[in-house]
């Protein structure tokens, strides 16, 4: 959970604007290319309209005279009209709004009758222009020095548009028209309030600036804010202007192809898609954006179809592609977990097993953390063993995490964000075994990752800058995404935060294009453009595509009987910042866990095994998307068809001589190896027990017990989670030999042959009372675990099975027979 802080420090600093060159030198943005004589045009330019725009909202007469608007207007007033002509003038210089704290209007929508700032923060922008595109020199999160009463705001300004209309001329002069997307960001928080501003300009002056903020992704508080302000234009040469213009042209050119969501049905007419499935389950007024990514196209719900996205309380937002979306906890996946995969790519496979306390100095004086090894991987899986309660979000919704989220200073081992992060009690032996949802775990992970990075690259190395330069920039994420919330709100007003420590668990800001590219990076196992941006093995683990590590069971249970997810379907899993959702029959006969990113308020990025991604960003605490699994299965099967082959070596033996049987399982439509088990058969009769596939999709079995004569050997492949039951493809199954109570941590079984310490086992009767445990000790006839209590008692004879299953997503298959002759 993320809450708005009720207390903010009050201070003001003079506005300071850094040049693009200074920003690059400071590491705030990626280094700019050398300036060219003229800028490359932005794709889509030049405008071809004749300027004959019929305008009733924000007309020339309003913008050139003082106004106090009575309410917001339709957002179409801020949008580029179809008949827009190329701009008459070029804007280059500084736009400053006059006295934003002294004017404007405000309307409470939710929880803002008191305590919310009612005015824009100070705004002064350096802008350059490339054709019809108006480009801020600083596009990321900007510290404003806002000191108004109530909550204060930082700012994100995105690239806007400039054009000409025939009616923008009169006694005040002849002007071009401009509009920019703006987003107010609650200081020290992740709430985003989206709006626009618009003005007229020529080579020497600007009109008044109309603005309104009428949409948000913020479950905590909501408002409308609008008005019209005087402004000044200081025309001057902006350093590196052409380089900035070229960078914007390149960013637009590198955006993923976008179509309206309705085009998904027309592009795949035989699929029979019901488009109403997408966006269902979410209150329409709470939906900010949603769409489907498939085969390299981002199908985005817009404002002109039945599937409406990009909506405000006053129509369709004028800049849907640049609408700012808070990450909230999707940052746990797309930053904290992904950064560990990048560190492995850079420095090797030992990184996940490093000890947090070796790289976080404050842990040395924390009794909760200095006594046991807690690895980077434990923190990424939220299984540190440090918690007060295992109940789902009990700690997250408690006083300590609330104080952590509201704290602005980084602090010490006992103060500030760090002090609260270290405040949970340690439970010996439960690290790596017991899951407890904690934002603080990923905050601590990022501090440890930073410490490790500095040990490798020097004390000035910064984890976010590493991700910006080595992952986000090569992925061509939006320029406004290349900053993050940091502790202390310490950067100079008018600049993006470069000092302070990363939040990591939240505090980033996406666009729909960013979401599509990040999801595609995960779908492609960390590769983009032919380059491995994140370690493939770590990405396979996060995406539930490797049976060697599927994270931890996110099945919270304690003596109250609380539980979340079922063990029979593999249960919810949590791995490297990614959730995995166990389907419960959405696709009959196809068992799978869908990996997904999740964010506070109602944000989901669900990455299906068939390559389709469904995402939505909303703020009414609604998380309904299970029905989209079956709908997207219509595009291509969630469980990929497989081909199983088997060989025998040697193919002719004498009685008693060993024969090695090897099965290979492949799926042409998957970029990772099949997981599950193979049952070898001799003339239709089982040979031994199922054998788990290795990391390459192969399994072997050696026998010397084949009788004399010819044998037809086949291999029957059973995928993980087939028919939604982890028992179906388990390579080991046994039964309880006595009852196992709700408080038990050791239970008796018929045999533990084939099990080892560290294995995850399921226990029960394939119902909601199933339990999962990680084995910490065993004897030939007993299993012991620590941490999670039973959700229910289990009677003698109930099943116990090995639960080390990956995410499924493959269809069963049987090989053709291969002959073996025994003489």
UniProtKB/TrEMBL annotation:
Keywords: Signal. InterPro entries: Beta-lactam/transpept-like, Big_3_5, Ig-like_fold, TAT_signal. The keyword Signal applies. Residues 646-731 form the Bacterial Ig-like domain. GO terms for biological process: carbohydrate metabolic process. Residues 1-36 form the signal peptide. This is Ig-like domain-containing protein. The lineage of its organism: Bacteria, Bacillati, Actinomycetota, Actinomycetes, Kitasatosporales.
């Amino acid at each position: 959970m993320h809450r708005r802080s009720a207390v903010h420090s009050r201070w003001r600093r003079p506005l300071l604007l850094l040049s693009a060159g200074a920003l690059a030198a400071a590491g705030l943005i990626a280094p700019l290319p050398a300036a060219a004589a003229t800028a490359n045009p932005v794709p889509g330019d030049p405008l071809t309209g004749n300027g004959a725009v019929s305008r009733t909202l924000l007309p020339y007469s309003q913008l050139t005279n003082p106004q106090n608007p009575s309410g917001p207007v339709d957002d179409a007033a801020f949008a580029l009209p179809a008949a827009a002509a190329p701009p008459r003038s070029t804007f280059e210089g500084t736009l400053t709004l006059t006295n934003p704290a002294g004017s404007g209007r405000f309307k409470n929508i939710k929880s803002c009758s008191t305590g919310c700032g009612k005015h824009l923060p100070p705004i002064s922008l350096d802008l350059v222009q490339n054709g019809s595109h108006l480009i801020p020199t600083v596009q990321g999160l900007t510290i404003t020095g806002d000191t108004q009463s109530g909550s204060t705001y930082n700012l994100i300004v995105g690239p806007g548009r400039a054009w000409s209309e025939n009616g923008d001329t009169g006694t005040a002069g002849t002007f071009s028209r401009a509009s920019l997307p703006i987003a107010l960001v609650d200081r020290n928080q992740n709430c985003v309030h989206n709006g626009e501003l618009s003005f007229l300009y020529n080579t020497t002056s600007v009109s008044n600036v109309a603005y309104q903020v009428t949409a948000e992704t913020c479950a905590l508080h909501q408002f409308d804010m609008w008005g019209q302000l005087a402004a000044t234009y200081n025309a001057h040469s902006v350093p590196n202007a052409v380089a900035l213009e070229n960078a914007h042209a390149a960013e637009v050119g590198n955006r993923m192809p976008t179509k309206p969501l309705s085009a998904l049905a027309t592009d795949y007419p035989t699929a029979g898609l019901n488009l109403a499935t997408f966006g269902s389950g979410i209150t329409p007024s709470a939906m900010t954006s949603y769409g489907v990514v498939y085969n390299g196209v981002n199908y985005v719900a817009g404002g002109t179809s039945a599937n409406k996205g990009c909506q405000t309380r006053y129509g369709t937002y004028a800049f849907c592609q640049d609408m700012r979306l808070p990450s909230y906890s999707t940052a746990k996946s797309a930053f904290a977990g992904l950064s560990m995969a990048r560190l492995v790519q850079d420095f090797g496979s030992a990184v996940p097993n490093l000890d947090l306390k070796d790289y976080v100095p404050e842990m040395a004086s924390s009794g909760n953390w200095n006594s046991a090894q807690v690895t980077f991987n434990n923190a990424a899986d939220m299984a540190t063993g440090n918690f007060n309660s295992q109940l789902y979000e009990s700690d997250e919704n408690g006083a300590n995490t609330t104080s952590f989220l509201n704290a602005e200073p980084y602090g010490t081992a006992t103060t500030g964000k760090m002090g609260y992060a270290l405040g949970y009690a340690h439970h010996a032996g439960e690290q790596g075994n017991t899951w407890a949802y904690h934002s603080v775990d990923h905050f601590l992970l990022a501090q440890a990752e930073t410490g490790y990075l500095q040990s490798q690259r020097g004390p000035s190395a910064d984890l976010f800058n590493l991700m910006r330069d080595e992952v986000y920039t090569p992925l061509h994420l939006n320029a406004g995404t290349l900053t993050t919330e940091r502790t202390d709100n310490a950067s100079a007003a008018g600049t993006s935060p470069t000092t302070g420590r990363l939040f990591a668990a939240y505090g980033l800001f996406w666009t729909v294009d960013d979401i599509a590219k990040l999801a595609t990076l995960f779908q492609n196992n960390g590769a983009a453009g032919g380059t491995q941006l994140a370690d493939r093995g770590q990405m396979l683990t996060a995406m539930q595509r490797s049976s060697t590590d599927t994270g931890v069971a996110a099945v919270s249970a304690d003596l109250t009987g609380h539980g979340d997810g079922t063990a029979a379907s593999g249960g919810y899993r949590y791995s490297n910042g990614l959730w995995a959702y166990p389907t419960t029959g959405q696709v009959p006969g196809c068992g799978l866990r869908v990996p997904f990113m999740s964010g506070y308020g109602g944000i989901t990025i669900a990455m299906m095994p068939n390559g389709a991604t469904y995402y939505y960003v909303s703020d009414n605490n609604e998380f309904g998307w299970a029905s989209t699994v079956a709908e997207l299965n219509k595009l291509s099967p969630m469980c990929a068809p497989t081909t199983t082959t088997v060989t025998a070596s040697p193919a002719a033996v004498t009685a008693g001589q060993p024969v090695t049987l090897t099965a290979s399982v492949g799926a042409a439509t998957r970029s990772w190896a099949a997981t599950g088990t193979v049952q070898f058969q001799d003339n239709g009769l089982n040979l031994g027990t199922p054998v788990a596939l290795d990391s390459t999709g192969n399994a072997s079995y050696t026998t010397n017990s084949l009788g004399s004569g010819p044998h037809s050997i086949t291999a029957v492949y059973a995928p993980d989670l087939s028919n939604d039951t982890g028992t179906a493809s388990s390579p080991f199954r046994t039964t309880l030999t006595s009852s196992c109570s709700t408080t038990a941590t050791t239970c008796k079984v018929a045999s533990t042959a084939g099990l080892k310490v560290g294995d995850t086992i399921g226990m029960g009767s394939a119902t909601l009372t199933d339990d999962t445990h990680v084995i910490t000790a065993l004897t030939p006839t007993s299993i012991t675990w620590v941490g999670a209590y039973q959700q229910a008692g289990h009677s003698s004879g109930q099943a116990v099975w090995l639960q080390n299953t990956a995410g499924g997503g493959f269809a069963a298959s049987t090989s053709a027979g291969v002959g073996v002759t025994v003489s």
